[in-house]
Automatic annotation (TrEMBL):
InterPro entries: Thioredoxin-like_sf, Thioredoxin_CS, Thioredoxin_domain. This is Thioredoxin domain-containing protein. GO terms for molecular function: protein-disulfide reductase activity. Residues 8-135 form the Thioredoxin domain.
């Protein structure tokens, strides 16, 4: 009986320390491995500074783990236990004052961290990490540029992806970061004319709309060039192993050896400390740890299952809403005057969607909602910071609208949508209308920001602009 009680007591200690499963993809950090795992790599890395007793940290853990699992290899997610004596110097160095504190270490040379202020959901964190992958790591190529890209520095390897998607994926941008300074990565959008002909003329490969995406490694050698096509799954680890084998002659590890290496890496990583209680043997502690790991893993899996179910329900509700709205529009108008209804955020979203289409209307509504939540959070933390809250909300809107404008411009220039389908004349006209509207909104927001910086009212600032151009 006493043995069972001792094991359960040790388990309680373990569960309090184990925010993240030791076998998982979230890397545990302390002062001994922080530089190697975060500062000396190329990938964007999110670090969560946590405490064992923190309720918000416990809520974050399953969301955070889900991102780490889904984006394994593409980006890195890690955490620091600020109650561990081996980590307290890190928490002090990075100015951690509350838990959890999330910091993004971007893919830059200095790796200067930026505070993450977004929602603590897997979707929001995942979007933030995808945005952190720099697009400049991949060179976009037109059909006429493929030959010069391949022939430049002929003795060095290059990688080219032919894809029907307008934009390169986060996976491809991540791979380009892995080999930055060693192998240039090119990206060819196949929705433009002349691409398939250029692929055959330059690389000697025959492609068509049914054989893309297609990934090639070109290894320039004396007297010609070797072109290798990738023929396995589009997974980070698989592609990386293929590149290492073709370019550097490294044989990929067998699955058993890979799992053994991962277990060895996990065993070398810092572990949560479990203090033995009086009367407990080392076997008791080991048994408690195994029980704790299993139960924590099961808890995370159950949470992930519930999140997936909630997302499915949300998607079903949105589809039902769209069908209902479509039927309502088809009903004959009888001329009766309807009473005014109170305006809700859902109704505003509907109006925006009706104005500019489901996709762009939803984006606008999401931008507005995030800006509002950001302002509300600042004011809730400190009611005296109303001015700063307004600034933060407008800065968020400015950044979001700018990104949307770039996205719209890319589609119009490419003459195709996100899925690679050519734009009809009507679709292009619609997108141009959306672009004009977004640019007008951005100018309005930026005018408010500039007016505040110049200590003028909006009217005074507008008058100064008109006077500048004699309008």
């Amino acid at each position: 009986m006493m043995r069972c009680v001792a094991v359960l007591l040790a388990y309680v200690v373990y569960v309090q320390a184990a925010l993240f499963a030791s076998h998982g993809r979230v890397v545990r950090l302390d002062a001994s491995n922080f530089d190697k795992e975060v500062l000396q790599i190329e990938k964007p890395t999110m670090v969560a500074f946590t405490a064992q007793w923190c309720g918000h940290c416990k809520n974050l853990a399953p969301q955070y783990s889900r991102v780490a699992n889904e984006m394994d290899g593409v980006v890195k997610l890690a955490y620091v236990d600020c109650e561990d004596s081996a980590s307290q110097s890190l928490c002090a160095k990075y100015g951690v004052q509350g838990f959890p504190t999330l910091k993004l270490f971007p893919a830059t040379k200095k790796r200067l961290p930026r505070d993450y202020q977004g929602e603590r959901t897997s979707r929001a964190i995942m979007d933030h990490m995808i945005d952190a992958l720099p697009t400049e790591s991949v060179r976009r190529l037109e059909a006429s540029q493929i030959a010069s890209f391949v022939d430049k520095k002929r003795g060095e390897p290059k990688i080219v992806l032919f894809s029907p998607k307008v934009k390169s994926s986060s996976l491809y941008r991540s791979l380009a970061l892995d080999y930055r300074e060693r192998i240039p990565f090119g990206y060819v959008y196949t929705g433009k004319p002349g691409v398939f002909e250029a692929a055959e003329n330059v690389l000697g490969v025959k492609l068509n709309e049914n054989t893309v995406p297609a990934l090639f490694l070109i290894d320039g050698q004396a007297g010609g060039k070797r072109v290798e096509k990738y023929r396995s799954s589009m997974k980070h680890r698989s592609i990386s192993s293929w590149v290492d084998k073709v370019v550097y002659g490294k044989e990929p590890a067998a699955p058993q050896e890979q799992r053994k290496a991962e277990r060895t890496s996990e065993s070398a990583a810092p572990k949560p400390k479990v203090s033995a209680r009086p009367g407990m043997s080392e076997e008791d502690v080991d048994a408690a740890i195994k029980i704790g790991e299993r139960l924590v893993r099961e808890e995370h899996e159950e949470t992930a299952r519930k999140l997936a179910e909630e997302e499915a329900v949300a998607r079903g509700s949105m589809e039902a809403l769209r069908r209902a709205r479509s039927k309502q529009k088809q009903m004959p108008f009888e001329g009766q005057q309807q009473a005014e209804e109170p305006v809700s955020s859902e109704m505003l979203m509907d109006k925006l969607q009706d104005m500019v289409g489901d996709k762009w209307g939803t984006l606008l509504a999401q931008h507005a909602l995030k800006a509002r939540k950001l302002a509300e959070k600042i004011v809730q933390d400190d009611p005296a910071k109303a001015f700063q809250a307004t600034e933060a909300a407008e800065a968020h809107l400015s950044k979001a609208l700018s990104a949307d404008i770039v996205h719209l411009t890319d589609q119009i220039r490419a003459g195709a949508d996100d899925e690679g389908y050519p734009l009809t004349a009507d679709m292009e006209t619609t997108l141009k209308g959306h672009l004009d509207m977004f640019q007008g909104m951005l100018r309005t927001v930026e005018a408010r920001i500039e007016a505040r910086k110049s200590d003028k009212t909006e009217k005074e600032y507008a008058d100064s602009i008109l006077a500048r151009y004699d309008l």
